[in-house]
Amino acid sequence: NAGVTQTPKFRVLKTGQSMTLLCAQDMNHEYMYWYRQDPGMGLRLIHYSVGEGTTAKGEVPDGYNVSRLKKQNFLLGLESAAPSQTSVYFCATRRLNNEQFFGPGTRLTVL
Amino acid sequence: KNQVEQSPQSLIILEGKNCTLQCNYTVSPFSNLRWYKQDTGRGPVSLTIMTFSENTKSNGRYTATLDADTKQSSLHITASQLSDSASYICVVSAQAGTALIFGKGTTLSVSS
């Protein structure tokens, strides 16, 4: 079992470019999350999903969109990247007992 | 407002020494509290979970305590090893909700 995987691992974008981060899980968990982690800020929730076809905004959703077309995949999109979106992005799933399983992260730099 | 505060922000200790990390929360109603370990360049991994009725739980050299009355938790690391160098994150779940409230973490450095 791979658990939670994220692609890509690293990416450099220019301001205004777009990209999609892919999160895939093989644990059959209903809940999936996208976080960003910045120095001194801790993990902040961007968007989350409680099941296939559903998404909801988190703490810092502006500038991001998400989709959950299949239960095992959760996509995070940046339509027009800004330097403020330079961060490490983590995807996570959640068990019913609230234990979260995190992916390895995607390090994104926007120039 | 639901908040989780961790202290200290960072800590440096010698290999073999013990240390204690603190977590204070204002989350209500409380469901459970988890401690995660995050190695550099990797995602967080769950160490322990504490529910309202539990006071102490151990996972090897890691021992977590919970005082639900004062809304405080601690993570005690015994006989530290170089591999304990990481960020430790306290996460509190509110009851019957999807919200998980994260602390900003304590960065522990263990030196030889």
Could you explain how this protein is built, in words?
The complex is a heterodimer of chains A (111) and B (112). Chain A is built from no helices and eleven strands. Chain A has strands spanning 4-7, 10-13, 19-25, 31-38, 42-49, 56-57, 65-67, 73-78, 87-94, 100-102, 106-110. In chain A, the strands form two sheets. In chain A, strands 2, 4, 5, 6, 9, 10 and 11 form a seven-stranded mixed beta sheet that branches. In chain A, strands 1-3-8-7 form a four-stranded antiparallel beta sheet, with no helix packed on it. Chain A is globular and about 40 Å long. Chain B is 0% helix and 59% strand. Chain B contains no helices and eleven strands. Chain B has strands at residues 4-7, 10-14, 19-25, 30-38, 45-51, 56-59, 62-67, 72-77, 86-94, 100-102, 106-111. The model of chain B has no long low-confidence stretch (mean pLDDT 93). Chain A binds chain B through residues 4, 31, 40-45, 48, 50, 90, 92, 94, 97-100, 102-105, and chain B through 31-32, 34, 36, 41-46, 49, 89, 91, 93, 98, 100, 102-105.
Summarize it:
Chain A has strands at 4-7, 10-13, 19-25, 31-38, 42-49, 56-57, 65-67, 73-78, 87-94, 100-102, 106-110. Chain A is mostly beta strands and 111 residues long. The mean pLDDT of chain A is 94.
Rg of chain A, Cα atoms, Å: 13 Å
Low-confidence stretches of chain B: none
Helix and strand run of chain B: EEEEEEEEEEE
Give helix % range of chain A. Answer: under 10%
What brief labels describe this structure?
heterodimer, A: 111 residues, mainly beta, seven-stranded mixed sheet, four-stranded antiparallel sheet, 0% helix, globular, B: 112 residues, six-stranded mixed sheet, 59% strand
What is the fold's blueprint, element by element?
The complex is a heterodimer of chains A (111) and B (112).
Chain A: E1 4-7, E2 10-13, E3 19-25, E4 31-38, E5 42-49, E6 56-57, E7 65-67, E8 73-78, E9 87-94, E10 100-102, E11 106-110
Parallel strand pairs in A: 2-11
Antiparallel strand pairs in A: 1-3, 3-8, 4-5, 4-9, 5-6, 7-8, 9-10, 9-11
Chain B: E1 4-7, E2 10-14, E3 19-25, E4 30-38, E5 45-51, E6 56-59, E7 62-67, E8 72-77, E9 86-94, E10 100-102, E11 106-111
Parallel strand pairs in B: 2-11
Antiparallel strand pairs in B: 1-3, 3-8, 4-5, 4-9, 6-7, 7-8, 9-10, 9-11
